[in-house]
């Protein structure tokens, strides 16, 4: 018994890691297999595979049993016990370091060559792009010169729209056109309509020049509310639109949603809604009571010069310098149809029936379009010697007027498709605004002054020459008994 106890106590147990085969510094035992492991190695194994590496049974780090053992000092390797061997080991390390350094230098040189080649390719690509850009610009200039010298044609061009309005929209437009056409045929001349003598007797009832900023002077757009002639909307060079009560001499609301000059304004006839276009390429829809923006049409890529509200009150036409007109829903701001023409558009106006419309262009042509498509451009009127500045339709649906920078206003018969009358303005005078009264009896022309003509004889009834700047807007009131005008001299004038 004494010998047995002594034999157990005198036994030196040699532990070795089941993974590395070396004496573990921190031995632990797996209760699953009974094997001994280096704690660091078994924990690393369990982090990737939670099983015992000896028998494959499930094992976690928490199950490991730590063994208490004396600290093991690892012997020096047998091959590093002499000075010559140590010197050889150091020489091998030096050689390996030099070899790795050499390979690194080779890699750096390769990367440097690749970078140099890439920079050369980039420089060559930039040169090619610059040359192609120059050739493109030269080709565009040559094309512009060719178009400028090409003989004009009166034949309409078969221009297809980017998209045609949906059938339900076309049906809605056609139903409104049929309704208006029937009403027009039964309409009698109002007994309250102003006579020529009444027009001659008109005088300046009110005038204000304090609505828009003096820093960027000028009213560039005007509209008069169809049913409430006390309300006017003015758009300015100062980028602001005001709704103004000229009777109360007070501003009702202000819209400040544009970033450039306002070119056109329209007041909705039955809703508290206003529309405005601007050189900032947008058409804005806003509330006339609060001035709050409701929607925005951003179809165009250049300044929008003119807009026209459809008789339904749900859609708007916009004309832009980017050569396109757009037909859009004012409630959603979505463009339902658009077409690109041969020249920039300067003005646009719906026919009273709301199916066809006219546009003035920078190439001296008045074009007639059919919104139903698919070939929209149905006729061209030529005859002006300068860019067209304004178009307007008579409420009777038979006549259209157009003004241009050639100091003329031309009258066109839409039934015979001919120019039957030309009004010659004073030399250098450019008319920028035209408006027929609701009865179609009078035509107002705004340029350096305001002139009113009688459409039956086309005689000049009266000129209002009290402006120090170009007239940018002119609108007849109810029964032609008042006339609202706006000018670049910042003045809003009411004649009655």
Structural summary, described in words:
- This protein has 496 residues and is an alpha+beta fold.
- It is built from five helices and 31 strands.
- The chain has helices at residues 2-9, 39-48, 83-149, 167-186, 196-200, and strands at 27-29, 36-38, 65-66, 204-208, 219-224, 231-236, 241-245, 250-255, 262-267, 273-278, 283-287, 293-297, 304-309, 315-320, 324-329, 335-340, 345-350, 356-361, 366-370, 377-381, 388-393, 399-404, 408-413, 418-424, 433-436, 442-446, 450-454, 459-464, 471-476, 483-487, 492-495.
- The chain has a four-stranded antiparallel sheet with strand order 4-31-30-29, with no helix packed on it. Strands 5-6-7-8 form a four-stranded antiparallel sheet, with no helix packed on it.
Structural descriptors:
single chain; alpha+beta; four-stranded antiparallel sheet; 496 residues; 5 helices; elongated; 31 strands
């Amino acid at each position: 018994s004494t010998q047995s106890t002594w034999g157990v106590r005198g036994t030196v147990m040699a532990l070795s890691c089941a993974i590395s085969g070396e004496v573990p510094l921190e031995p632990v035992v797996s209760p699953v297999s009974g094997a001994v492991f280096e704690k660091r190695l078994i924990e690393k194994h369990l982090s990737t595979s939670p099983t015992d590496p000896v028998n494959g049974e499930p094992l976690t780090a928490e199950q490991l049993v730590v063994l208490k053992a004396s600290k093991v000092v690892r012997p020096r390797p047998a091959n590093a016990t002499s000075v010559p061997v140590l010197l050889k080991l150091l020489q091998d390390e030096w050689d390996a370091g030099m070899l790795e350094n050499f390979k690194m230098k080779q890699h750096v040189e390769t990367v440097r060559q690749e970078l140099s080649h890439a920079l050369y390719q980039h420089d060559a690509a930039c040169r090619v792009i610059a040359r192609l850009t120059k050739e493109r610009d030269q080709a565009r200039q040559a094309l512009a010169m060719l178009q400028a010298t090409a003989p004009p044609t009166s034949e309409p061009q078969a221009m297809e729209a980017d998209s045609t309005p949906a059938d339900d929209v076309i049906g809605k437009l056609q139903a409104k056109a049929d309704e208006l056409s029937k009403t027009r045929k039964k309409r009698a001349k109002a007994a309250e309509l102003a006579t020529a003598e009444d027009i001659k007797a008109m005088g300046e009832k009110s005038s204000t020049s304090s609505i828009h900023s003096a820093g960027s002077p000028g009213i560039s757009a005007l509209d008069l509310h169809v049913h409430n002639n006390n309300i006017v909307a003015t758009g300015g060079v100062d980028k602001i639109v005001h709704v103004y009560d000229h009777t109360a001499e007070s501003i009702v609301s202000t819209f400040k949603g544009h970033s450039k000059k306002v070119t056109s304004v329209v007041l909705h006839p039955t809703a508290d809604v206003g529309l405005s276009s601007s050189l900032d390429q947008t058409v804005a829809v806003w509330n006339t009571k609060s001035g709050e923006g409701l929607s925005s049409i951003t179809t165009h890529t250049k300044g929008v010069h003119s807009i026209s509200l459809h008789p339904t009150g749900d859609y708007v036409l916009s004309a832009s310098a980017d050569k396109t007109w757009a037909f859009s829903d004012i409630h959603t701001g979505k463009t339902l149809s658009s077409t690109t023409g041969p020249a920039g558009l300067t003005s646009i106006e719906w026919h009273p029936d709301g199916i066809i419309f006219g546009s003035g262009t920078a190439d001296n042509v008045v074009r007639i379009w059919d919104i139903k498509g698919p070939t929209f451009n149905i006729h061209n009127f030529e005859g002006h010697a300068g860019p067209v500045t304004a178009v307007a339709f008579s409420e009777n649906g038979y006549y259209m007027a157009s003004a241009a920078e050639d100091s003329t206003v031309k009258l066109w018969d839409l039934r015979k498709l001919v120019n039957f009358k030309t009004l010659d303005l004073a030399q250098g005078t450019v008319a920028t605004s035209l408006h027929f009264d609701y009865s179609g009896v009078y035509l107002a022309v705004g340029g350096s002054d305001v002139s009113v003509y009688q459409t039956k004889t086309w005689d000049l009834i009266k000129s209002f020459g009290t402006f120090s700047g170009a007239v940018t807007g002119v609108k007849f009131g109810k029964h032609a008994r008042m006339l609202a005008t706006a000018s670049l001299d910042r003045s809003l004038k009411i004649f009655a």
